[in-house]
Amino acid sequence: MLRLTCVLLCVSMFPACLRAESVTPLRFETDVRAILRTHCFQCHGEEPDVQGNLDLRLVRFMRRGGDSGAAIVPGKPDDSPLYQRLRDGEMPPDESKQISQEELRIIHDWIVAGAGTVREEPESLGLEPHITEEDKSHWSLQPIRRPAIPDPVITDPAHSARVANPIDAFLLSELQKNDLSFSPSAAPRKLLRRLSLDLLGLPPSPDSVQRFVNSVASADGADKTWAATVDTLLETPQYGERWARHWLDVAGYADSEGYTDADSERPNAWRYRDYVIDAFNIDMPFDQFITEQLAGDELVTSPLNNLSAVDAKRLVATGFLRMAPDGTGGAVADKLQARHDTMADTVRIVSSSFMGLTIGCAQCHDHRYDPISQADYYRFRAIFQPAFDPEKWQVPSKRRISLYTDADRKKAAEIEVEAKKIDAERASQQKKFISATFEKQLKELPESVHELAKAAHATAAGKRTPEQNQLLRKHPNLNVTSGSLYLYDRKAADELKTMAAKATEIRATKPKQGFVRAITEKPGRIPDTHLLFRGNPDQPRQELQPAGLTVVSLNSNLPQIPSDVSDVTTSGRRLALAQRLTHPEYPLTARVIVNRVWRQHF
């Protein structure tokens, strides 16, 4: 459940991420490779044609060297061109990315120690980054395991009652390692104020404070009062309003499109905001929360032109994928670039929200810190390609889905029939009033012009003869129309106005047509995804199939992302991603949400 699951998970997922300082000799994989990946691999390893024929991704490649000979001489940094050029600031060529003195020292000491490796290196490497054992063994990528609950030595009897759950045991154990202990208990008034501000963002009322103080003061009421108070606050609507804001910040919620100075309004974005608030207030399971936001449209079973209430809510949830800035509905300098920018921002929001990774850093080149290749980035982006489809792009106004159902349309049609009856009656009355008024005005003129006047009155203005126009100019009181009737017969004009208002009033009773800002796929169309050289949409390279990140996909038990699913109307890619992210063995999602809840509470 959104409220409680994350806090309970804190016990079983508290990461042991403190690492003792290494006393082993410097090695390439553990100490040097990350430095070179940050500063050097882009020119010397990532591209098919490495500069100077020098590949720095393996030590064996450095010893072999390039056009200028060996890059390193083990034991002799001053004789190693790699170290020399880094030391002298000749490399990397971009002055803003110069290597730090600490990084330079590590490379120097590693060469002095013999330029060793942890293990035997592979014979060759492909274009994509080599995923090392160190990459695979990072604590955040390991399966989540339930740790042993510590048993801290309680020297102060007052602490015994305060270790009420495993989280308290973890906290006290770490405090004791630093000669610390729990802070004194807060006074009841202060405790309730903290709780209320944390869960609701609002201070408690004076009456509720007094009731809480009185209940806590009773002999056996403290624990029961505390638990009941927490439950009461969790059940209030303000809880969802308070905590939805945290998620909406993660999702990049905005009521306007951004991207350009026009910053046009998103009239239906509020539905997604309310969906998130409701999700917290109804204690929606987090797996469902993830799945509906990523692939609510792939769960829809009713027709889009006759959505059930459940399916409409699922579509609203996909507003999560519509929160990125989108200027494609207005004037932009480069429409293709604007489309790709919207997709890039969407990928960034998804990856940071659920995985806690900056996948977007690999849009133009291999990631400088994490084991994420540029190809990995576009494989991940291919999951969303059918929904966004840059080649068959739909601007925001074309993506909205009507919430009208068959019942709404039937009711609206019935109401329109009633309104049209009033319209017809009004038209008939208006014709009678105009005719009567014209005849009254005609009697004031000589009979010799009556026939000509009647012909002019019966003829449309654009088809009248010169003689007819001359007559009407000479006698403007004959030009009786719906717009001038009030000048001659105020009572008749008011009656017609009342009838028009009645028709408008009837039409106002039609079911209101709402719209959803959603994401959907076009049935039967699966657009290709290509790696974009340097992230440039005008320079597509090899085609790539959808997939999760390679370093995580090494776990064969995780659901795979399909290239195509023939028995459904959508690609199934985003639904598969949701199933992957919520799989018990997927290491990132649970850690990310627990860390978010923990940080936001404390």
Structural topology:
Elements: H1 5-13, H2 28-39, H3 59-64, H4 81-87, H5 101-112, H6 133-136, H7 157-160, H8 166-177, H9 188-199, H10 206-217, H11 222-235, H12 237-251, H13 270-281, H14 286-299, H15 309-317, H16 335-354, H17 374-382, H18 385-388, H19 396-399, E1 400-402, H20 406-442, H21 450-458, H22 466-474, H23 485-488, H24 490-507, E2 515-517, E3 530-532, E4 540-543, H25 550-553, H26 573-581, H27 588-601
Antiparallel strand pairs: 1-2, 3-4
Helix pairs in contact: 1-27, 2-5, 9-10, 10-11, 12-13, 14-15, 14-26, 20-24, 21-22
Low-confidence stretches: 4-22
- The radius of gyration is 36 Å
Tally of DSSP helical segments: 27
Give the helix level as a range of percent: 40-55%
Strand content: under 5%
> Quick check: average pLDDT?
90
- The count of β-strands is 4
Q: Determine the structural class based on helices, strands and strand pairing.
A: mainly alpha
Characteristic terms for this protein:
602 residues; mainly alpha; 27 helices; 49% helix; extended
Structure notes:
The protein is mainly α and 602 residues long. The protein is 49% helix and 2% strand. It has 27 helices and four strands. A hairpin with a 7-residue loop joins strand 3 (530-532) and strand 4 (540-543). Helix 1 packs across helix 27, helix 14 crosses helix 15 and helix 21 (450-458) packs across helix 22. The longest helix has 37 residues, at 406-442. 28% of the residues are buried. The model is unreliable at 4-22 (pLDDT under 50).
